């Protein structure tokens, strides 16, 4: 197990970070494809369409061709939300990581470095919602390369965000993931995050019936923390 270091993002890290983002999203496509194959509508469409063609044309070859031709279409649909997410991210907050995450004191972006390579990332941005009564931080872009998983890097990155939130006086840390990312969900729940709801993040996700899951982690307020320090043990 190679040692790793968690540090703030530098501009020289960009190619590694973009590569991790793309790789991390694409690797979810096979699981999403299997999910699509199990949907009731797919189970009706694949055999139903093939059977209808067989009854109309009397050709087994045509029916088989229909089923085989539909599989690439389903793969494309399974991959589309992930590629859309990468494209959207690279046009918005990840277009200029330094400006988005390191220009203000309430936000930050970290990388995990091992053997002079960036093998993990995580970002943190304040939630801009004037209706909120609590100061809330958004955890985003938690990614660890497949070759470096199982070494505690993801947990260390999440702990880095939680400590940053405490230091900056945030009361809550929130994040979004999808139900396809089972290992991420297990990680967050194991670290004390609580599920607070779910929704379809886009029409692409609705079409695939994949929910975006929202999690929250409650932090003691800075005021409560300071009071605890002043109260002697009894």
TrEMBL record:
Subcellular location: Endoplasmic reticulum membrane; Endoplasmic reticulum-Golgi intermediate compartment membrane
Key word Transferase present: yes
Domain N-acetyltransferase: 61-220
Record's keyword terms, sorted: Membrane, Transferase, Transmembrane, Transmembrane helix
Molecular function GO terms recorded: L-lysine N-acetyltransferase activity, acting on acetyl phosphate as donor
Membrane topology: Single-pass type II membrane protein
Broad class of where this protein is predominantly found: endoplasmic reticulum
Gene Ontology cellular-component annotations: endoplasmic reticulum membrane; endoplasmic reticulum-Golgi intermediate compartment membrane
Listed transmembrane segments: 50-78
Top-level taxon: Eukaryota
One Pfam family per UniProt: Acetyltransf_1
Family in the record: Belongs to the NAT8 family.
Protein name per UniProt: N-acetyltransferase domain-containing protein
Taxonomic path: Eukaryota, Metazoa, Chordata, Craniata, Vertebrata
């Amino acid at each position: 197990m190679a040692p790793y270091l968690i540090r703030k993002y530098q501009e020289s890290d960009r190619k590694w970070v973009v590569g991790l983002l793309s790789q991390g999203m694409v690797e979810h496509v096979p699981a999403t494809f299997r999910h699509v194959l199990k949907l009731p509508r797919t189970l009706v469409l694949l055999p139903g369409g093939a059977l209808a063609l067989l009854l109309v044309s009397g050709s087994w070859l045509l029916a088989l061709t229909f089923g085989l031709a539909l599989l690439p279409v389903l793969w494309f649909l399974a991959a589309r939300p992930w590629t859309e997410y990468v494209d959207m991210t690279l046009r918005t907050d990840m277009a200029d990581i330094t400006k988005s995450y390191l220009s203000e004191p309430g936000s930050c972006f970290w990388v995990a470095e091992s053997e002079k390579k960036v093998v993990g990332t995580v970002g943190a941005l304040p939630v801009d919602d004037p209706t909120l009564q609590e100061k809330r931080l958004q955890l985003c872009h938690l990614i660890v390369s497949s070759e470096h998983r199982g070494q505690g890097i993801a947990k260390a990155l999440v702990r880095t965000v939680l400590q940053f939130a405490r230091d900056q006086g945030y009361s809550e840390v929130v994040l979004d993931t999808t139900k396809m990312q089972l290992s991420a969900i297990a990680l967050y729940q194991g670290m004390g995050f609580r599920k607070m709801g779910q929704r379809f993040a886009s029409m692409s996700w609705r079409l695939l019936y994949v929910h975006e899951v929202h999690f929250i982690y409650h932090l003691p307020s800075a005021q409560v923390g300071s009071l605890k320090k002043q109260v002697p043990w009894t």
